[in-house]
Amino acid sequence: MLEDALGYPLRTDDRVATLIIGGALIVAGVFVLPAFVLQGYLVRVLRSAANGEREAPSFTDWGELFVDGLKLLVVQVAYGVVIAVPIVAALVSLLLGGITGSDAGIAAFGTVSLLLLLTATLVSILVAYVLPAAMTNFAVAGELGAAFDVEALREATLSGRYLVGVLFGVVLGIVIGSVASPFALILIGVPAVFYGQVVSYYCFGRGFAEATDAASEGDAGGDADAAVEFESDQPRTVR
């Protein structure tokens, strides 16, 4: 996966233009709307990677990219709310503890707040792990509901292949981003930052696809074995 991921953004005839446009969208993201187009392109990367395509997509059908970017934001916000709930509850608990004014009340609410913050940390890790699968399932299906398909997400996230894809995506994204970021101030490194994002999302998409493909092959193999066993149990007629 490593070699395929690193080469993926460059295996296209318009790779230079794609990297420049992607970098420009990152810079223009402060105006919000270009950020949606960039997110839409990353949706296209997830879909392309999950479908086993070797070449990175091009920046075409910008309206579609914008709409897909908006949908991806909805998915990300929905999963972000899951993280926010225990954090907000912890802050409310601290506030109530301060209002009581008593040492016992402060200690009690402080303990509750600590437990809620611990819960928030664990939930954050879980959400960060599941989110790439949710985004990829949405990208492949083209429907928002696919991002919350519990059965499909469970099937993928419990696979070691998906875990490898996520780890590759996170590590490569951090490494490439760390190398490129210092040069981003003079704009030279911005296309490289975009390159790192594409590499990460490729790993997410491939990890999800390999996990679900393996599960499908396992199910198919189980069905075939069951069919053979069924046939072997049938009485044979000798003519």
TrEMBL record:
Pfam families xrefs: DUF4013
Protein name: DUF4013 domain-containing protein
Keywords: Membrane, Transmembrane, Transmembrane helix
Annotated TM spans: 16-38, 77-100, 106-131, 162-180, 186-204
Keyword Membrane on entry: yes
